[in-house]
Predict the structure.
Amino acid sequence: MSEAILDQVTQGEYKYGFSSDIETDIIPIGLSEEVVRLISAKKNEPEWMLEFRLKAYRHWITMEMPTWAHLNIPEIDYQSIAYYAAPRKNAPKSLDEVDPELLKTFEKLGIPLHERMALSGIAVDAVMDSISVKTTFKESLNEMGIIFCSFSDAVEHHPDLVQKYMASVVPYTDNFYATLNSAVFSDGSFVYIPKGVRCPMELSTYFRINAMNTGQFERTLIIADDDSYVSYLEGCTAPMRDENQLHAAIVEIVALKNAQVKYSTVQNWYPGDKNGKGGIFNFVTKRGICKGENSKISWTQVETGSAITWKYPSCILLGDNSSAEFYSVAVTNHHQQADTGTKMQHIGKNTRSHILSKGISAGQGQNSYRGLVKVNKNAENSRNYSQCDSLLLGDKCGAHTFPYMEVNNDSSVVEHEATTSKINEDQIFYCNQRGISTEDAVGLIVNGYAKEVLNQLPMEFAVEAQKLLQITLEGSVG
Amino acid sequence: MEQQYIELYKQHHESIKEHSATVMNTLRDGSFTLFEKLGFPTSKLENYKYSDLKEPLSIDYGLNINRVTIPVNPYEVFKCDVPGIHSFLFFVVNDAFYPVNEPNNKSLPNGVIIGSLKEIATTHPELLKDYYGKLSTTKNDGLVAFNGAFAQDGFFMYVPKGVVLDQPVQLINIMRSDVDFMANSHNLIILEDGAHAQLLVCDHTMDEVRFLSNRVTEVFVGENASYEHYKLENTHIKTTNLSTLLIDQKTSSTVLTNVITLHNGVTRNSIEIDLDGEHCETRLCGMVIADKNQQVDNFTYIMHNKPNCNSNELFKYVLDDNSKAGFTGKILVAKDAQKTSAFQINKNILLKKTAKMSTKPQLEIYADDVKCSHGATIGQLDETAKFYMQSRGIPEAEAKLLLMYAFTSDVIENIRITALQDRIKILVEKRLRGDLSKCEGCIICQ
């Protein structure tokens, strides 16, 4: 009986799978020094940017793909990927100039650009494939001195800031995928919040992978100057594809004295079909640094998509009294694999970090939590509490935890707890008894289980995230 | 580092074999080839992340390949006993079984065989051939492979079907040498269905030289059998103790291991348990009290291969001075091992700013109907509890001691030999007072 329900429900197709016909400008596949130069030239980048890319490229060719993650990654041929794709009609000035196909794409996703703008007051920097198509609310943010633009714009107009902070958190030598990104990154978002400014709205971007066979390599840089605050949202949905697509992004956050940055993600790239065919490879490097005293960075992520996820949003707690949070819900269904978690590096005194991770595995999904909490010798009175729970739905899935804790002084306290268990049959039975179908019951229970994390999301996102959880999982009873 | 041992083996493998038994020699070349390939483990390996063996392995140790008998009177070393314990007493000097005439050993139940692995391999080859190397050869581990190539003797214990040993077996390892010395020994313990045995292993060092012991112990626990393994380490700061304990459990068997490190130099304990039948019960306990430059790493790996098994882990560390310690608690629940429950707790206290602790619990779960949890903490003594005691007239030092003692007490409670439990209580208290660490060498009783 449960087998039947499992089959029936876990076969839910990817709801957001479609491909819109927008002309894209693609350069030949493969990666070489010429391609790096070509990308840089196409984007009219200054010399220092090209130098940075070339340095990264030259380092990248000496590196090998990491194999330590609990993932089964098929051989990736980096020479068969096109490293740049941009919609041809660039930088429209108003909605009328935006490709109607593109607008329709957003509408299909249930997030019409203008509606978003009007209803929720969110400034959306829509990244369609690789180039920023439209930046909204730019003017009103400008008045406050907030810079929210595409990365290329920032390179053009704010080179001093970009030069100062780019790669200061994730150096180009950091890891295989980060180095690849540093060499070929296409575009992304740039945020600068000046001293003492509290950003009045949630900043948001939507990333979509849209052209055939193009890896998307965004780069996001968020700088919060002294005493500032910003909440940044990033959401992803991608059309259905048969071939695996590579996604290797970098997100860097710099929080200066007393600054606060809240970064939320809902990730719903195409996970592949129920036989494990297709899907996005999501190999992302996200890292923030609490550079100043009393600064705070908070990561919230809801991971429901991608065939393979390799993602560890981390924090370097450098400033005294700084704090960091990490909230995560990761769902794997069908043949999805996820190896995700966080790193908390306590360097400053009295630093605090909190980790809350909820993993949900269904179908034949493999879900791993991997985390490191490291307390340096001088990080006196540091405090960490980590909790990572796993929920299993189905007898073919796997849930794994790999926490590392390293403490090098005698005044810090690090705590970790983890549980793994099956979805509670009594609860399902209770719901059934009251006329709630098994599918809905599972949705309810899973949403309840993930509530602590979902509560951290801004309201607009919380709704979307709940829906996503339900779509990905509905009724996967084991 | 490896090269000198590779050369040594190539030149002297004939004499190594000559002074060992056929059963052991059949696997020797294979182990050597594996060691040639793997070398000694480094902290780059995930399983050895918290063991830094580079320094102790770089010492130029002597090996006793030709089995020269070392004149020693074990009773001289082993002046102390666990008071009130009645046990069957055996000695291993360096890596050789040392025959003594213990009157009590004559009362061993019929059929029980305890003695030198080398000798029994010659007299009862049929007893060993199904067991020797069965677990150790499956491990892709440099230290185990090294042991397979160089170990010539060890301790052997066989308890036949249904036999219950009413007294614990006490095995005293004595390290005695005038020069820096390395001992490789292979222990084999077989408990047939329904048998019961308790083994207490104590390590002692006699001399002020550098010792390295690389010991592999294979334990086979039959259906409904029960086995308890206690290891007490109380050696000096120049000792390196590398021990690999491999246990295979059959249906409805129970195993308890309790590894207590009170004083040592560098310690690495690997405990790997293979739950090879349903309804098995496993409990792993351990305690570390370390100071100075002591280094301790406990690596545990429980493989839940069959359904309905329970495992429980409890490890506690108190670290002072420059000591450095690690704990890895790996639990694997295989695909069809439903109804598994696996629990793990690791709690650590750091007393000085220079002490270091790293812990790595690890759950890999491929079945859905399981209950698994792990918890780990690294912290300090409870300030409020200390204050409470101080406000009632207990001096600070005494209050700290009480708290530390209480902290370790649940590990001590997992000792099922009353006399030993009492003894450990005293030793731990002494150790926490710093009495033991003041002395160099094994002078527990002074």
Notes: Residues 313 and 344 of chain B are 4 Å apart (CA to CA).
